[in-house]
Amino acid sequence: MNKKKFDGSISEIMVAYKPDGSLDFEPIRKMVDFQVENHIDGLFMGGLSTQTYLLTQQEKKQVCEELMKAAAGRVPVMMNVMEDSIADAKELVQAYMDMGVDAVCISQPSVFPYTGQALYEFFDELIPENYPTYLYNVPQTGNTMSPSVTARIVNDHPNVLGYKDSTQNIAGLQELMAQVKNPDFQYIAGSDSMTLPMMALGGVGVISAISVPFPKVVLDITDRFFAGDMQGALEAHRFSMKVRRLLKTATDMNGYYYACELLDMPFHGTRMPKNMTEMTEEQKRIIRTGLEEMKLI
Structure pTM? Predict the structure, then answer.
């Protein structure tokens, strides 16, 4: 299989804050260098895991600018737009294109329940012409896109090249694949639990949280798969699930943040309530001990 841009393992880069609450870009620069040195296939920012939905419009543009500077053309960059306001979403799509991202990604709106037709119209208005664009199906928005709506959007917009699927719905994924007309369309797992299942069904890789602290763990799956080593890819996927279960000992993304801290790449601060980001000493001990046993730290 010949790899294309955004095939393989793509890391979802996080944001960090200074003590005064302003953005801290140094951890982003350090993490991007770490990812490039470990031969990651691409970078993604703007999804749920990165908490960039808590930033202002200007801060989102700053984050993109700094990510592009850090990547410096060494690895492709995809920026996601997750906005309820069409005007705000259009502004970000244009800003990201002006900064030269390799692709823009667009998520559905949240809060208010949208009909299938409303979702189609939302994307139809936002998808730019003649620019590499991806869709991101985020069930946490409450507006999960059905296979039929997604396929209709894709089939009507030839520059929509791929789809990040966080639904973990294998039956729905297969129905979408049956309806999309483009044989080169890229199906990308939006959860580490779906990396190998997605690729076995015809997908091309994953936008991963595990690969942020441990890029080689995820690359081992996708590289082996592309090399035709299915047994090796299966063993690598099972190992990644051990890592995932361990990091999810803590709530939300806190286990992943702690793993980065143990690797001397801490992402400080949050704009969420403290209760959402606190880890007990026991949780830290379990994660640290487990990573040591797996020889990841």
Answer: 0.95
Tokens of 196: 């190998």
For 181, counting Cβ atoms within 10 Å of its Cβ (0-12 exposed, 13-18 middle, 19+ buried), the class is exposed
The residue with tokens 């639990």 is 193
Q: Which two tokens stand for residue 153?
A: 């959007």
Whole-number pLDDT of residue 62: 96
Gyration radius of the chain's alpha carbons: 18
Q: Is the dihedral of CA 111, 28, 165, 96 positive or negative?
A: positive
Is 9:207 a contact under the CB 8 Å cutoff?
Answer: no
Residue 240 corresponds to which tokens in the numbers above?
């990644």
d(CA 65, CA 81): 15
Of 51, 35, 19, give the one whose Cα is nearest residue 215: 35
> What is the distance between the alpha carbons of residues 35 and 13, in angstroms, rounded to a whole number?
10
Instruction: Report pLDDT digits (tens) over 233-255.
Output: 999 999 999 999 999 999 888 99
Query: What 3-state class would DSSP assign to 161?
Result: strand
**Residue type for position 133:** T
Q: What tokens does 198 get?
A: 């997605």
> Pick from 92, 99, 90: which is nearest to 123 by CA?
90
- Check residue 79 and report its DSSP letter: E
Q: What angle do CA 111, 116, 121 make, to 5 degrees?
A: 85
